[in-house]
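I have been asked to look over a protein record a colleague put together. This is what I was given:
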Amino acid sequence: MSSQETLDQTLIEQTKNQIRVIVNEITQLSKLDISPNEYHGEFLHRVVSAMGAVGGALWTFDEGTLTLAYQVNIKELGIQDQEESNQKHARLLYRMLHGPETGTLIPPHAGIEGEEESGNPTDWLLVFCPIRTELEVVGLVEIVQRADSNSATQRGFLRFLAQVCILATDYYKNRQLRNFSERQNLWTLLEDFTRTIHRSLDVPTTTYTIANEGRRLIECDRVSIALRRGRRCKIVAVSGQDVVDKRATTVRLLGKLATSVVKAGEPIWYTGDTSDFAPQVEKAIEDYVDEAHTKMIAVFPLFRKTKTENDEEDDPTRRSKQAPPFGALLVEQIEDSRVPERMRKRVEIVAEHSCSALGNALEHHSIFLMPLWKLIGKSKVLFTARMLPKTVLVSALILVVVGVLFFLPYSFQMHCNGTLEPTRRQKIYSPLDAEVKELFVDHNMRVTGPFTGEDGISYRGTTLLELRSSDLDAVGIQLLGEQQEIIEKIAELQRKQQDQDKRLTDYEKTELVGQMEQAKIRLATVEAKLEIYEYRQKPDLFITSPMDGVVVSWDVKQRLTEKRPISRMQYVMEIADLEGPWQLELAMPEKHMGNIAEFKKQMEQNDPNAKLRVEFVLATEPAVKYYGTVIEIHDRAEVRTDTGSAGTATSNLNTVLIKVALDDQDSLPPALRPGAECSARINCGKKPLGYVLFYEAIAFVQKNIIFRWF
């Protein structure tokens, strides 16, 4: 074998390998999920390269029209400026769509006879092969080749082009399957959307369903529903929000936009340009976009279609008249102003179904006394043969319960909170404005009150506190100064009277005597003030215990630290006799005093000495009950702070103080502390069970409804 033949065989094998590689690339390319534009370019470049062609074109066929999807050097045909050649070539393309799947070769300047003349008006060999699926013809591949190739090479072109067109068919089949799948998903979503929005005739439920399900179907950022209230539209539902803040600026501006579009009665699509809108719509859109920064917004008025009076139900030519819009559907895109065709169609579908669903809900809601008709309709079920025994049984139980509530007497008690306090106790107050000099007692320290000793002398009680008053000290210093000044003046006058060398006239002697008497009177006055000062200083500056008992005030030393200023009549501490009798002090709300006063009056008519009975428990021992008798009810109500279960102030109540004497003092716990919290009930006789359970509700109705309106 010669070297030339060996070289030719090598080139042939390399060419075959290159073609195999290209075919494999086209095979892999056809399996990818890429856009048609991207696929057409990659596919055609590889086909032209593998066939060593001058150029080529890929035509797509949609709705009876051929469109050039992609081309490579198609200008090499040289027919761009020749109208007749272009028409002949175009007719050839339409004929080749229905050509054989194995492809067709059209030699240069060859024609095809038929109704209209078609053929190859160029100097090139044209190779055609259609791309078909089981459902339709989707395209046509046209390859421009040199005309000087032999017949074997041309048949190779046909076989190769037919093979790659089969691979292209796989791409279109996969794309059709994906389209069918997307359509199926769309129909499923649409079916779910339709079924969901028509499920309820409640207006709020329907609006929120349309907003949230519509956003999922449209695949946008936000969907809102506006309903017309008079001349204005109000936003009633926004996707992704349970509650619409109607005072928010964006919500108000969106309502104004819906109002302007509803008045115009035509849907709008805003993507950044407002030049084609009415002035009122343009201003409303600009105001809203400036606030919300929305890139795209569509507003569709919602209409309710009604039949004309002359239309018949079986008339296929009947017309429907359009009522004024009852609201609007608003669709927004926050970051993208582009509106794909798929989104437009879905928005129109959602708007159409929203008109029907929301219109039905509004019409149903507008029926007069609809809640009553619903109740009457449901009540019919109770009297069917299957439900009648149950209805009779339930009715009998209801009558029994009502009878028990009205006629069964039950113990009626008024509940309130209170505290246990020693009967003998006294609060200590500051007698003047001063500061603490020294504290002699502490919390829980026992003290004694004033007493008379065996020698018959009265002694003061235990010293509790020593005060220091700068005002009182200033008064003492001033009195001492005046006393010393007067004494010195008297001594000087006495020296003048005893001065023998100095001769005094009678007038001067009389004047000295008068001054002496005046000075003595002033001295007596100052000394009397000093006695009062000394008498007052000890009880005022030394506060003593007025009774025997225990200091019950908490944290006395911290509150009454040294040099701490206190004002006149300021509370200092409290002394209580813990070993003496105890009493219960209740803070009864004033609104409950009417029942107590009524029962007390009934008791006194039968027995003037009858007393109200009280049952109470301690907060520390809620399982043990104690009893007592009301001994005093204050004649006026005062505002006191009501405390909750945690001991914190919850509200201020107008309460009446009630004092209760205990039946058995010895049964109280040994370590009882003053102010121990109690929960008490005052017995008010017997009332019907219904009144006992609902007396507060009855009082509320009598006060706020019956008294106010009747």
In short: The chain has 15 helices and 31 strands. Residues 1-5, 308-314, 644-649 have pLDDT under 50 and may be disordered. The longest strand covers residues 409-422. Residues 151-197 form the longest helix (47 residues).
